Fold this sequence. Notes:
The structure is a single chain. The protein is α/β, with parallel strands linked by helices. 57% of the residues lie in helices and 9% in strands. The protein has 29 helices and 14 strands. A five-stranded parallel sheet has the order 7-6-5-11-12, sandwiched between helices. It has a four-stranded antiparallel sheet with strand order 1-2-4-3, covered by helices on one side. Helix 7 links the parallel strand 5 and strand 6. The longest helix has 28 residues, at 232-259. The two termini are 41 Å apart. The structure holds arginine. Residues 164, 167, 169, 204, 206, 384, 402, 404 line the site of arginine (ARG).
Amino acid sequence: MAATSSPIDQLAQRVEGLTLQNVAAEFPFTHVDVNPYDFWRAHLTKVLNGITGVDPKIIYPTINWTSSLDKGDFMVAVPAFRIKGAKPDVLAKEWAEKFPADDPLFEKPTPTGHFIAFFVRSKPLVQTLVPQIRKLGDTFGRNTYDGLRDASDPSKGQKKILVEFSSPNVAKNFHAGHLRSTIIGGFLANLYDAAGWDVFRINYLGDWGKQYGLLALAFELYGNEEELQKDPIDHLYQLYVRINKEKEAEIEEIEALKKEGKDASELEAKSKDEQARQYFKRMTEGDEAVLARWRHFKDVSITKYKKTYARLNVYFDSYSGESGVSEEAMAKTAKLMEEKKISKEDNGSVLVDFQELVPGKEGKRLGKTVVRKRDGTALYLTRDISELLNRAETHNFDKLYYVVASQQELHLRQLFKIIELLDCKEIAKKCQHISFGMVLGMSTRKGTVKFLDDILNDASEHMHNVMRKNEDKYAQVANPEATADTLGISAVMVQDMRGKIINNYNFDMEAMTSFEGDTGPYLQYAHARLCSIKRRADLSEEAIASADLSLLTEPHAINVTRMLAQWPDVFQNTLKTLEPTTVLTYLFRLTHIISSSYDQLQVVGSEEEVKKARMALYDAARIVLANGMKLLGLSPLERM
Ligand code: ARG
């Protein structure tokens, strides 16, 4: 075998009559170079076509993966072959019998009922996958064909996706909804990036509305530039809380006066509420002085946000925000909505009544909503409408995800419907709400959560305490603080992504920071252990690459490889489910199998050739685990 040919080329040489060119020509949707299992499927399709006469186009998509290794590597459901009149279980038996016993890639299959399970032959699998994974390294699993406008012609360019996520409100709590949006949105952006899309990450800050007039006023009254620079999030939050309290007290006072029948107009005129209203009015009218101050708040906040997001490996291409939606743009949309009879006047305000516009249940569910208040101010929805039209004008996007808590489901439905009614069906079709459930019981030890940092610091501290409990191990950690920080962040993220995103979950500090069970620290530990094996084996890359992989014959070695071979399929499936748990479930299955192999497959202490071969296997496992973790947004630790 030529040393230069790739492991996949060498695989193809084992199979008579099937070349990589054949596969590409006959199954143009396959990509053997990034997903080796596509070759196995193509071959299986050919063999089954020979046995059954069924069109390969029908056979290929019926080849499914299995839920556990004991059920095989692939399986087909006979009824999916659409053969009329025949009993599927009889056919299953017949076909399995006809399957050649000397097939180069598959063992003789076993039928169960309507199904036939296929197990891959271990030798060609191990000899192809292990070197291929090591060759592709951190790109193994990625499939960038998905993002091409034309998969056979990269010059036609990439598809574009806008992912809007995180989107906290300046000076307000960074609540659990924002945490989830940040984690899930970051993951989705990574996913599409790895699938070859042009990804544009948007943080649509809540930074506009009367409450921001109030905040600016608070700064004028009690603000301190030095403190703002030092900790903008905290300072603005404190100001906001303080002035809100005062505002509420005034309102109470005014109400009390009114109740007693006294004149409250003087108090009302100079109240914080009224001053804030006026301040905000100046902001909407484009008063440069107040706007400059407002931009300054935003800038210092964004600087701080960026630092925290970096801890989660999250970044944005644009911090847009509600304030970026111009009054002119909204006036233009308002006119359009009026012309198309989508909105109507009602007692001075402008509203959209979906019950009149959309027939049946859907209209009822969408209800009625105001888009312009009587005093002329625009609302959250008004801004979202103009912002979406603006995004469509600025970006030629194929998809736009709104990663927002399920509480805003109605809001986003209304938004998409209005866009549709504005004769922008094509835009509406590209939009999708990525809806997720609540986090229950999230608070930090110091009380309420002010910002993302508070949550992460708390988890990091907790993790540090967990680590200290094992004194011997703790003493060996070179950089315990940084390690605890990464572990704590992984704990938070994995707990968040563990279940289907639409489900609520309990924020459980004890459970998430445990090294046992399916947690972030467990995954990190599994990764660090693989790294440590490599360090201790002390073999050069060339030595590992020269390993004789036919020495990997133990069931554990074969099963680890079978799991590794699935990773590109798992990636592809994740693009369909859009669920981080698809990745996590796989990573936990993989790490369980790996950790059960350590006793059987020792590296250090084994005979030199065996040592090399096992090291190659563990190295491939390390690569896949790291790739999965990075896709989720975790930073794999090399030591701990
Ligand atoms: N800032 C909003 C909030 O905290 C979330 C923004 C969601 N995105 C949107 N385009 N409306 O509730």
